[in-house]
Amino acid sequence: MTPTAKAYWQIHLCVLLWGFTAILGKMITLPALPLVWWRMGLVVVVLALVPRVWRGVRAMPARLLGAYAGIGVLVALHWLTFYGAIKLANASVAATCMALATVFISLIEPRLAHRKFSRRELALGLAVLPGVGLVVGGIAAEMRIGVAVGALSALFVAFFSSLNKRLVTHADPLTVTAVELGAGTLALTLLAPLMPLLFPAFAGPLLVLPGGSDIGYLLLLAFACTLFPFALSLVALRHLSAFTAQLAVNLEPVYAIALAILLLSEQRELSPQFYLGVAIILAAVLVHPLISRPPPVIRGDTLATGEARDLGA
Questions:
Q1: How does residue 274 score in pLDDT terms, banded at 50, 70 and 90?
Q2: How far is it, in rounded angstroms, from Cα 15 to Cα 24?
Q3: Residue 82 to residues 58, 99, 156, 233, 299: CA-CA distances in angstroms?
Q4: Residue boundaries of the structural domains of the chain
Q5: Rounded Cα distance, 154 and 142, in Å
Q6: Helix or strand or coil: residue 29?
Q7: Which of 306, 305, 310 is nearest to 288 (CA)?
């Protein structure tokens, strides 16, 4: 097998593992806040044991450190709303909403990353709207709040991906991941006392050790679906073009929905109208790289910080 072919299978394995994040989020019984707090905290603890990370932090200018910390807060809010959408609706709905991130990026990235605005990308974004309408109409009324929260999560993806794009070459990827997830964990810790007042459905105790199967699922989420694919993606991206990697990552919602059907039988909760809407949204997302400019060289710091990543970020 050639290095390129091997890398192709490696990146698809990463995307498949990222697809499992929605499934594990549904299976874990914790509310969204403690779920995300434990996931981020476990990864940070492991990265804190890596000497390379500490060397990178010491070498990082204070202003850059603050910028990455701010992005980490956005990452935490993305994960909080992503898992909130899963709890309020289901894994298929949340995964579908993540496909909207590409649409939001087409509007936000030109300003934040200082690139030219693309009318073609805006047109593609507008083409997604009928699909969103079908998705909303194809689910039970009580699940529609999950669509709104999922769309907000996709908006957070657009912001932190675009900001990461501006800073992508400024620091070591593992160090950036540790700083961002560490800052996100701290932000959630400070937010926890206010959560019962702001978003009661997301609230839950942070310092209570998860019991039963939750602890096992959290370990899988933190290490098998975050750290391992992050490291593997760094290896794969040495032999793949940005275009190829982008196409692979755009398949993540497809994998997540397929896994939700196979493992959670979510097709019983969803109508054919929902799947028609999903098809429209995913078609637009998959077409996006075909009509867009080639993204810049990929670095790993955006790979560990979200379920629906724009790899050029």
A1: confident
A2: 15
A3: 32, 12, 10, 22, 24
A4: 3-302
A5: 20
A6: coil
A7: 310
